[in-house]
Amino acid sequence: MLSYQHAYHAGNFADVHKHLTVFALQRSLLRKKSSVTYIDTHAGRGFYPLADPESQKLKEHENGVLPLWRERTSLIGNKGNDESLIGEWLSELSRAQGAKSRKLTHYPGSPWWLAHGLRQGDKLHLFELHPGEQQHLEAQPLPHNVYRHHGDGLLGLQRMLPVITPRLCVLIDPSYERKQEYAEVVETLAFVARKARHAMVVIWYPLLPAGRHQSLLDGVKQAGLRKLWCSELRLHSPQKEHGMYGSGLLLLNPPWGFDRQIENVMQHVATCLDDDASHKGYWWVGE
Ligand code: SAM
Fold it and tell me: The domain containing residue 72 runs over which residues?
């Protein structure tokens, strides 16, 4: 069963949370010269015209990226503090809008965000299982050191380890259409931690009233993994029975000071999103 299509959700608050964090992580990795292999296990299409019928159906970007885009002049002017990252991210986002467009017409997915910061010796591997989504991804103009794979991302990631570059950064962003995906992610993370001890891994999970993400968090603790930090951006409290009320990220081996930076960035994002929105960052398992 592969019915999920990210185009229905492109640019929503969870995308902002995930892509801003990945952008910050890449900025941090770029401070050192040694090469990085990036692996995006669930790539999606890579690029989303917001006027497409899928994105227009729910218009989730209107409660996600759009409020930040509207504030971009003041956010881009913000310099020298953690929040200035939002301005840098929005400047990159303007590059995705085509020649001098002042309107937000397109929203780029994780492949674009990861590809934009690639250097000569870096590599980016993208996995996508859905044939239609893969076809869209193949059509994207991406640099020569981006490799697209049609297949299962969690298996593909495991087969790639260890990588030849000194550093590894992984994004695991499943749609969780199947409940077993939480357990599969735990197994994969434990495998990555064994094969590539210093790998930085970002795992996205939804905050749903059923609280399924707790099995993921408990699983990684039981697997004996260390240095796990969580960032959770909530739009509101879980009042309703259905529907995602928040977006979670579990980070393995985040760089030093990254927790404080993301905490400050996401507090600011929350104030732009909604009066009820909030962010909580916490160490799930320390050193
Ligand atoms: N990471 C993308 C982004 O941030 O722009 C969004 C990815 S979307 C949440 C999840 C994607 O994973 C969907 O495009 C879906 O087709 C794909 N998918 C589902 N199961 C997969 C699997 N086992 N391996 C690789 N891709 C898979």
Answer: 6-285
Q: How far is the CA of 173 from the centre of ligand 1 (A)?
A: 6
Q: Among 127, 148, 175, 187, which residue has the most ligand 1 atoms within 8 Å of its CB, making it the best to mutate? A: 175
CATH number (domain holding residue 153): 3.40.50.150
48 in a domain, yes or no?
yes
* Other beta carbons within 10 Å of 92: 15
In a domain, 17, yes or no: yes
How much distance in Å is there from the Cα of 152 to the middle of ligand 1? 9
Whether the per-residue pLDDT at 224 is higher than 90: the answer is yes
pTM check: above 0.90: yes
Question: Residue 122: inside a domain, yes or no?
Answer: yes
What is the number of domains present in the chain? 1
Nearest CA to ligand 1 atom 16: 130
Q: Tell me if 1 is assigned to some domain.
A: no
Q: Over the stretch 129-161, which tens digit does the pLDDT of each residue have? A: 999 999 999 999 999 999 999 999 999 999 999
CA 178 from centre of chain: 20
pLDDT at 100 over 70: no
Bond before 111 cis per omega within 30 degrees:
no
Determine whether the shortest distance from the Cβ of 113 to ligand 1 is under 6 A: no
pLDDT band at 10; cut points 50, 70, 90 = very high
Please give the number of the atom of ligand 1 that sits closest to the Cα of 171. Answer: 1
CB 167 within 8 A of CB 29: yes
Report the C-alpha gap between 254 and 227 in whole angstroms: 8
Q: Nearest residue CA, atom 20 of ligand 1?
A: 129
